[in-house]
Amino acid sequence: MWLSCASCTGYIESETAPPFGADPLGTRGQGDFGAAGSNGNNLPPSGNGPGGVIALPPANCQPGTPPATTRLTRLTHKQYDNTIAALTGLPLHPAEDFLADQRQAGFDRGTDLQVGDVLARAYRDAAESVAETVVGDPTAYTRVLGCAPTQGDSCARSFVDSFGKRAFRRPVTAAEQSSYLALFQQGPQLVDTGDDFQRGVRVVLEAMLQSPKFLYRAELSETPAAGAIALSSYEVASRISYMLVSAPPDPTLMQAADADQLRDPNMVAAQATRVLTAGKGAHETVRDFHHQWLELDIFPQKLTKDPVRFPSVGPALAGALESEVEMFVDAVSFTQKRGFKSLMTAPFTFVNRTTAAIYGVTGQFTDDTLQRVELDPTQRAGLLTQVGFLASHAFSTVSSPIHRGVFVQRRLLCNLIPPPPPMIPALPTVDGAQIRTTRQQVDQHTAPSACSGCHHGLINPVGFGLEHFDAVGAYRTQENNVPIDASGTLAGTGSNAMFSDGVGLARAVAEAPEARACYAKNWFRYTLGRAETTADACTISQIADKLQNDEYTALDLLTDITRSNTFMYRAAENP
Amino acid sequence: MTRPAIARRMFLRGLAGVAVSLPFLESFAPHKALAQAGPKRMAVFFSTNGVNMERFWPKGSYGALTADMLMGTGLEPLASYASKLLIPRGIHLVPRGFGRDPAGGDDHSKAVGHRLTAAANQDTQERYASGPSLDHVIAPSINPGGKGPLNLMVGHRANDVLGSFSYTGSGQQAIPFQDPWKAFKDWAGGGATTMAGGAMMDRAVMRRQSILDLVKTDLDALKNSSVIGVADRTKLDMHLTSIRGLETNMAATGVTSMSASGCGLPAERQQEISVINPRNVTLDTEYLKMGDMLLDVMALAMACDQNRVVTIQWGSGAGGPIFSWLGMGADDVNNRYNHHKLSHGATTDAATSPNLPTDQWKSALFSIDQWYMERFKGLLDRLAAYSEPGGSVLDNSAVCYMNDLGDGLGHNWMDLPNIIAGGAGGYFKLGQYVKLTRGSGTANDTDAPSNMLLTTLANSVGATMPDGKPITNFGRAPTGKAGEFDALKT
User: Fold this and answer.
1) Which end of chain A is more exposed for a tag (fewer CB within 10 A), N or C?
2) What is the ipTM of this complex?
3) Number of H helices, E strands in chain B
4) How many CB pairs under 8 A join A and B?
5) Pick from B236, B229, B125: which is nearest to A526 by CA?
6) End-to-end alpha-carbon separation of chain A, Å?
7) What is the spatial distance between Cα B28 and Cα B6, in angstroms, rounded to a whole number?
8) How far apart are CA A324 and CA A315, in angstroms?
9) Which residues 426-445 of chain A have a CB within 8 Å of chain B?
10) How does strand A498-499 pair with strand A488-489?
């Protein structure tokens, strides 16, 4: 939705068109190093910045043609490590030492990820290390070989075929078999240790683990399908396992691909459900998504508090606060088998001794472990009333309705909030006379016309709903002897629902179609590794609709993504 | 992961200001002719949030720069280097910030995104710059084998445009090393196979070459396939360039040349770096220590000619640590508010009007500026300690200080702090304080666009376009200009 915040920044954002045109400076500039397009992959600006917010159609929409997307998606570091572990059967995780990847559309699993020279070196070093370790470990060597070296050439061939298929997630071609066999035969000249067969295996392992066929999910299908292209069963198998649980296809999934069964959406959904319920992969996906969506990584930077008033809270508490959120979302999604509404409103959490005191819960707690506790449902509800969020969106002594309001608008409602203008007036002081509370201070500070559009219109009414929670997220009924006023509205939504406190705010978010749409969009961005385009709007709308049902869990959502037009099909054209 | 051993038969004592000649450089015969000056390098030391503009700059007139012009200023720690500094004044950011050139997020996003790219920010959530940065353009040109630059960072890295000012390409942010041990290993070696030289070395090189040939064949096949579009070809080209870099650097890998030449850290220092806890490297409490370790790694990489383009970024845009080690008392503002808040004189990041006592926050900024200048001097000391043909590593380098803003309170993108030390082997004037604007003032948005500084720096170290032609315009019309700052050149 477009906001008329003309006075905020001097930029006018219209109801219909993005400001300034697509590329005001000219992408074909006269400099020596012009960019190819306004974003890295030549797609039109997507729904994350001022370039365009995707309007969702009603849920009874018909999905259209899927968008043009990259055909080469680099494995994320987690996917890389899970693949190495699956291929070798050893607990090797070389990617833990790789440098982090950049974010794209809010998550580090983007389709834009590339291999620069630092990563190429890291991949090489990892491939060499893994190959050496595997060949040196009898169990792993046997597993990787799958045949007896005494069989000579036929085992070499069989090794190249079977390991190649597992590494590339599809059968090797005749040309690949011939190149890798030729490399195998050079083993004795290229490796110092081991017998001839071991040398051959080692050099083939090193090569395969650096091949683009291993490092990227390559989607090269050209099978036409009603104006689009149908991905092959192998390509769909890789999507199911990598997108949903960051792992390579397991043997059952590969068999389904071998039998070309993954062109049928029902089979795809069945495999997706199976993959999501087998093992820990789905737990990690749910944990990782919420960690990134809710920006938990900023906790260590945002927990510096007044040591006199709040001696127990500091950056060292960040780990426990992150774990609390992770355990909460896991409990809601897997133990309770509930969805978005419970995430926003469930009155329980996981505490240690320090946070138990902040929550005001009694019991026996330790510093090292987190225990589940029930919370007062008149005070607390779901994610927005958790200590980590509240404390990291506050100052050292006082709360920050603005930070909390901006977070809800951006992360939970997907509304665009422009940056503040420069040179705004000084904060009025809480003088105990005219201004006695944080709410009054913020209200007055943001009253000038240059500020009120965004602040009084969008940010403050939401942030004020959390005023019962102080700088560390503890509940309070008064501030400076003035009773807390936590009334507000869910501004920036069609309903503009009113509430009188944090529990009311949480319930309003749980019920807001915009919040469901935002949650669906973020899951979409995380899973597909890209921002949504207009071609994805119907998929997202249908998922958003289903989120009304609290029994529609994250796993159901992920399964439904596999049913979307963009999961099994791609546009005929290339970006 | 166990840390592999690094051969350390000998090491250089280049630190502590003792000049040491480097016979090992002569063994790099494929890369350097013996009689010529040492290679030219570029280093960029980047900090954010602007400076205390009232007290930063040299006192006195433009022209010759002397030590006493720096006394009492933010630059005072550099006084002993006055004759080796070039301080240009009046450079403005390109594209411009502060509501002039649109799009790309707030002022800090633009400041960090544009500083080393002269490119607009993208219209996306992360707001990355839409072009490569200077370091990633010139490194393949001047590094043997076309290797990319070494990017380092101290402190917390934001997850968007504010987190790194380096780009390998449009929308492709270069994530820097923040762990000094990882940064060291990346060029000093430490791969699984420790190569001890001789026949084993030859076989290992052959193995790597054979494998890379196969990898390149696979990449080329994909690239030439009709199924692949323009954007994916760019992606494959980047990968191919990285592979070519691996190839050419194979015979002269850090490990081999390190063990042969003895170029390394003093044993105790290497031990100290090897045991740091990787999970703590970005904490504010580790800022000083990590910074010093990264400066050691940076200077060594340059002196050992393992990378001729190195950057070190201190803090994210609109971020920076709480400088608690500069705090004078329990209530000192440096103990409570991070750099960004102090740059606004405020207790919050969003308030852009001061609410702290003026003398407190301005003097806090001044002491932060001097602290960064002490670190910068530390880098100059390290580089000056290595002598080579041409003088010292410092003399052969363009060692730049840059800040993404001038006045942090006003988010002012004009009159940006820039220092060039060393001179790049006589390319730049030294011991000079130069005004680049035509009028008497230095807050100007047309005369001295920052992209011209990037063009000048590129030429100072001998970088060229891929086809060998000179770089004449690192930038983007209409807000940048072609050409170099001739007033800065000898």
Assistant:
1) N
2) 0.88
3) 14, 13
4) 289
5) B125
6) 27
7) 19
8) 15
9) 426-427, 429
10) antiparallel
